Amino acid sequence: MWRRLLKLRHIARSFLFCRIGMGNTCSFWQDNWTGWGPLILLIGQQHTRLTGIPINATISQAIQHGHWLISTRSRNQLISFLRSILPPADSILHPSNMDSFAWTAGLDEANFRIAPARFSSSKTFTALHPHPPKVPWHKSIWFSGRIPKHAFTCWVIARDRLPTRDKIRRFSPQVPSICVLCHSAPETRDHLLFSCLYSHFLLISALHVIPPDLDFHSILQWLPISTADSSLKLIYHLLFQATAYLLWRERNARIHSMTSRPSSQLLKEIITTVKAKLLALSRSIPPRDPSLLQVWFRLQSSSSHVINPFTFTTNHSF
Ligand SMILES: [Zn+2]
């Protein structure tokens, strides 16, 4: 175990900062004491000889009569660069203090020169694995009141990580390419959600409205601006995610269990699931006027803009 830990020294090294006291233990070349990291990594070991400062010199040994032991006349670019980043030699040593090392993960430069040297595992983890930039569809997936398994599936879809047949065929060409929902086009993420006629009409039947663009990412961007009514917006989000989740489940059932359901059954399940969620939410959130369920029943009583030719089909291929 210790050997494994020792192998991580090069990572740990980047988080250590030396605060100079007497300067008799901090290595001029190997330790990070300027904020630029170990100077040897900047200059290169083979070039340290040019400066005249020995490879094992401490800070105090690199200073003589208040000046760095580096030629001021040299025009070598590396030496000029080194001179430009070194702090003034006459004020860096503090003979009454010992040199000390601080753990800098999670601290900015202004703080790690003065903050207490405390180790934080969470800040270290974040420094090693920084958060990726926020994506514009973040709130359309992780909204308050979501159904976790639906949101997770939508997140996987948004990341384009669904194992759709186009991806599987890259390493297993014998796998059929055809979409098992409509049997009329190759299965891709964008086809399944929502270019496929089966999923296209199922989504419109569930939402009772036609989004301006029927591809997955366009709908994610449309959802936050779909309506000014916050209750209706929440319902649209839930319906959309339930539709995507059940479509993916239906696709898997057709491939792996050889069972299929008409889209009318999927629509019923979407409505039942979202209604149950709204019932639970309406008990846990402050009362609204109109209530969530009133908005829900109003939406359900409105007629869809499009007649879904597959919703009430008895043909099991749809
Ligand atoms: Zn299809």
TrEMBL record:
Listed InterPro entries? RVT-Znf
Q: Keywords of this protein's UniProt record, alphabetized?
A: Signal
What PANTHER family does the database record attribute to this sequence? OS12G0587133 PROTEIN, REVERSE TRANSCRIPTASE ZINC-BINDING DOMAIN-CONTAINING PROTEIN-RELATED-RELATED
The name this protein goes by in its record: Reverse transcriptase zinc-binding domain-containing protein
Q: What positions does the domain Reverse transcriptase zinc-binding occupy?
A: 119-200
Q: Which superkingdom?
A: Eukaryota
UniProt key word Plastid: no
Give the signal peptide range: 1-23
